[in-house]
Amino acid sequence: MLEVKLIDRARRGWDWEVRDDAGKLMARGRQRDRPAAKYQAERALFQLLNVMSRRPPRTGHDSPGFDDRCAR
Question: The pTM is what?
Fold first, then answer.
């Protein structure tokens, strides 16, 4: 699950972030006005979802830190 967050930075504009369940930052940016920030954040979210849907699901052997030498 991914989350979009918009942050008001007063005179500097709006920051936006897309984070995963663990809180890992997946994408971020800054726009001058809120509608532009919302659009860019949702665009990044869509692109991340699109890329993630094309990847094969991770199994135990594909997980980071898995050492198949230990499985023998």
Answer: 0.72
- Establish if 62 belongs to a structural domain: no
- Residue 6 covered by a domain: yes
pLDDT score recorded for residue 65 = 58
Q: Where are the alpha helices (DSSP H) in 20-60?
A: 34-54
Quick: pLDDT tens for 22-42: 999 999 999 999 999 999 999
Say what the pLDDT of residue 72 is: 44
First to last CA, the chain: 34
Range of the domain at 34: 2-54
Q: How many domains does the chain have?
A: 1
The pair of three-digit structure tokens given for residue 22, joined into one six-digit string: 């663990």
Question: Partners of 34 in the beta sheet?
Answer: none
Say whether 5 sits in a helix, a strand or coil: strand
